[in-house]
Amino acid sequence: MLVTHLKKQNMEVLTSYETSNIAPFNNFQSMNASLFIALLTKSGNQNEKVSKEWNNAIKSKIPTIALIENSFKLPDQFNNWPNIIRFDRTNPSKSISQIQANRTSSVNSEKNDSNALAWILGGIAAIALIKLLSDDD
After folding, report:
1. What is the arithmetic mean of pLDDT over 35-62?
2. Domain of life here (predicted)?
């Protein structure tokens, strides 16, 4: 459902959701990926796989955003990673405002680092994902 919605918004989406093997996503540089968005939820059945892919994207210097549901227990080693947004399905406005602020700050910044690029490239997609997952209509 999320992928279908994003594709309707003319976004190209590459997902490993239907694959059982992480191997195709071990080398992000060979895929020429522009952005990686990790989505970790309490009810997610592939959170370990997503965490490994997120790690591989960071190692490959791919801009990343991690959307993490408040109820999901994030392992301590991930807490200092860049561009983490915690979201609440029942009240998404705080995380959406945070994404908008990060995106605006990045667009106005003179820096051209992967953190700024993540917000510029993925801010709108991150907001769309949170809205789709939220309980708000």
Report:
1. 87
2. Bacteria
